Amino acid sequence: MTITGEWIGEWAGRMDALASTFMEQFTSKFGYPPDENYVARASTSGSEEITGVGGVPEDLVTFYRYVERVSLPDVGSGFFVHPEAQTVAGLRGDLPTRIVGSREDSVVVFGSDGGGALFALSTTDGSTVYRLPPSRVEGDVYTEGPIPCEIAAPDLAGCLSLLERELRAGI
Q1: Is the pLDDT at 46 greater than 70, yes or no?
Q2: What would the pLDDT profile of 14-29 be if each residue is shown by its tens digit?
Q3: Residue 153 sits in a domain of what CATH number?
Q4: Using H for helix, E for strand and C for coil, what is the string for 42-104?
């Protein structure tokens, strides 16, 4: 599914409502206060920096036009969609851009979880989202270890819907 601004706006609205309910119920449910769990909207039209890099799947460019970041540290082991600047820094060498092992692909890392795994979008097909468990990274190459990378979602919309389901399940 191709992401549109309308789709992202509706998704972010649902996430705002769910995060609010999650935060309100958290302390009584777990006995300690939550960290900040939120979807931060882009303050400007966003995606200017990532557009200049080239080769980034259009769905991710569209996402960053509307959303700056997602931070859900108290949902499951934690889920994060990195700010655009961090994603761009990753493309410039701070994070892996290639996977080698049982799967081989070129990727853009855009998120992570609280267990050290990375979420990466295929630049080959522009849609597949991988979950890369902690493993060896040399330069820009992620090498699969004993726990192989897995397909987290068929596309970015599926990944964002997964975050929504996880947040809903935490309520």
Answers
A1: no
A2: 999 999 999 999 999 9
A3: 3.40.1580.10
A4: CCCCCCHHHHCCCCCCHHHHHHHHHEEEEEECCCCCCEEECCHHHHHHHHHHHCCCEEECCCC
